[in-house]
Amino acid sequence: MITYTKTRRIERSAEAAFDVIGTHVFDNHPKWEPEVLEIRRLDDGPVGVGSRAVMVRSERGRVSETEYSVTEFSPPTRIAFDHPGSSLGFALETSILPVTATSCDITTRVTMQPRGWVRLLTPLLRLGTPRRGDRLTASQAKVIERTASAARSGTGRPPAADPSAPADLVTRAQSDADKGGSDV
Questions:
Q1: Residue 76, preceding peptide bond in cis (omega within 30° of 0)
Q2: Do 12 and 96 contact (CB within 8 A), yes or no?
């Protein structure tokens, strides 16, 4: 099993952050992950536990589709997803902890348990996960700050100046093997 955890301080309220990455996740996800070409909802209504979508991705010139679902939805503090058909055995959870009225800590935890032949890639996945995770959480933080700023200003557009990068608080990438378990 491979796990990755990252906490970032965001200069927005927990409610504003959750609005971007929880309430409107299907609209906003492609903004912070350039490999995501589109997300198609498989159901109607507001995002909540059981909401399903198909993520269309392009990586290394190959386009693929993966279904995923919301497994936990607790505004404004937590949202989690599972990719049940993925050969990576991929799950993602995001927790939001208010720090002040205008800032919060966002913790992203990724868990992967590769299946089938993909298990052979576990060492490579373990090496690449921290770099990719750091890139995506930094991008997500910028989207939250820009989107929340645009909503606050009433313009619907991000501010002209790019907000400063959020502070990295914690990064941890580890596997069960690192803790004495096995990879497969």
A1: yes
A2: no
Q: Which residues of 115-137 are buried (b: 16+ CB within 10 A; e: fewer)?
A: eeeeeeebeebbeebbeebbebb
pTM of the model: 0.77
- Yes or no: say if 129 and 109 are a contact pair by the CB < 8 Å rule: no
113: left (phi over 0), alpha (psi -120 to 50) or beta: beta
Give the three-class secondary structure for 149.
helix
Q: Please list, residue by residue across 167-182, b when 16 or more beta carbons sit within 10 angstroms of its beta carbon and e when fewer do.
A: eeeeeebebeeeeeee
Assigned token pair, 182: 């096995």
For 117-156, write each residue's pLDDT tens digit.
Answer: 888 888 888 887 888 888 888 888 999 998 876 665 554 4
